[in-house]
Amino acid sequence: MAIDIEKANTKVLERFMEARPVVTTMAKAIDVIPGMKDNMLLHAGPPITWERASGPVKGGMIGALLFEGKAKTADEAEKMLASGKIEFAPCNDHMSSGPMAGIITPSQLVYVVENKTHGITCYGNMNEGRGKVLRMGAYSQDVLDKLKWMESTLGPTIKVALEAMDGIDIRAIISKSMHMGDDGHNREDAASVLFTTQLAPWIAKTAKDTQTAFEVIKFLGENALSILNPIMAACKTMTAAGENVEGSTIVTIMARNGTDWGIKVSGLGDRWFTAQAPIVKSLYFPGFTEADACRDIGDSVITETAGIGGFAMANSPALVTFIGGVPKDAINTTLDMYEITYAEHKQF
After folding, report:
1. pLDDT tens for each residue of 53-66
2. Does residue 188 contact residue 231 with C-beta atoms inside 8 Å?
3. Is the Cβ–Cβ distance between 116 and 234 less than 8 Å?
4. DSSP 8-state assignment for residue 152
């Protein structure tokens, strides 16, 4: 029987657009992420080996073992990672999504994001903010100290608040923020304000003491990327709803890990299609060039897979100077995306 590709693609996109992701709570990764093991680390992009892993992924994995207490020194962690004792797996193969190196460890608290329309649940780790962070491959003591604070204070406080308020509708936040200059990926200023505004009263009400409430609200308010990880998990629930539709040519996953870029296509099941990750054309700090750069990295391109992010760059002129362009470049980029997309998102 002939396959109607147009009908299949329409079905996939209807599922994308009908999805209503809500972040409902936080939980330990090993308790909720499907297939997570005590000796497993999740990472961004398609499958990778230790030998082929990029610098940020290797650094993130070293930091992860130090954070988990499985290694006492970086050298010990490296030996463990090279020995095969630790399993590596893509976040995307475990209903999860992680920015940059994308490292998720068994004991980390993760956002639980439920697609209320299709009954799909996906997971995302907490965002550390900018600067020296695990997702960039850093693992110094101050990085580990922040992760411990997030584990002991930030995560549990957000968890209690989310449960008390019956969750936050992430699709609604994305939709509103897109009318406030965000693109849903690289610029999350408005979305983070909306997220923190909804959380703050409940944090004030449910936090164990005023100092904890102050620290958590201050951290969320100062970190414009606070909402990125829940948005990534939300986009993952949207695209997961469109997986495995026979005959569909719609891409349901895009991800990179600094070595490879991988995609999955709805009608082609769970198979990864990979190519070398490209070098990013962007701005560099003085004294640095493309020769110093890691190749493209992170699961955050799930936002583009869901139709926002770079595909909506025209919506975010303030972002353009951040990547070294002018407003006209943003408009042209969005117009160019019509060449490789199937429809416009009716929710955004």
Report:
1. 999 999 999 999 99
2. yes
3. no
4. I
Structure confidence at residue 348 as a pLDDT band (50, 70, 90)? confident
**Which of 22, 20, 24 has its CA nearest to residue 161?**
24
Full set of structural domains in the chain with CATH: 18-234 (3.90.1710.10), 245-337 (3.90.1700.10)
What's residue 330's pLDDT? 87
For β-strands 120-125 and 21-28, DSSP reports them as unpaired
- What is the pTM assigned to this prediction? 0.96
What are the CA-CA distances from residue 230 to residues 88, 181, 214, 220, 236 (Å)? 23, 19, 22, 13, 10
Q: Percent of the chain at pLDDT above 70?
A: 100
Whole-number Å distance between alpha carbons of 85 and 72 = 16
* Contact by Cβ (8 Å): 338, 314: no
Q: What's the pLDDT band for 281 if we cut at 50, 70, 90?
A: confident
3-state DSSP of 272-327: CEEEECCCCCCCCCCCCCHHHCCCCEECCCHHHHCCCHHHHHHHCHHHHHHHCCCH
Residue 104 carries which DSSP code?
B
> Alpha-carbon Rg of the chain, whole angstroms?
19
Q: Are strands 96-97 and 120-125 parallel, antiparallel or unpaired?
A: parallel
Model pLDDT for residues 213-237, shown as the tens digit of each residue:
999 999 999 999 999 999 999 999 9
Rounded distance between C-alpha atoms, residue 83 and residue 65, angstroms: 13
Residue matched to tokens 């760059």: 313
Phi-psi region of 166 (alpha: psi -120 to 50; beta: other; left: phi over 0): left
Does pLDDT of 68 surpass 90?
Answer: yes
pLDDT tens by residue, 24-44: 999 999 999 999 999 999 999
Q: CA-CA distances (angstroms) from residue 216 to 151, 220, 222?
A: 12, 6, 10
* Tokens 């993952």 -> residue: 236
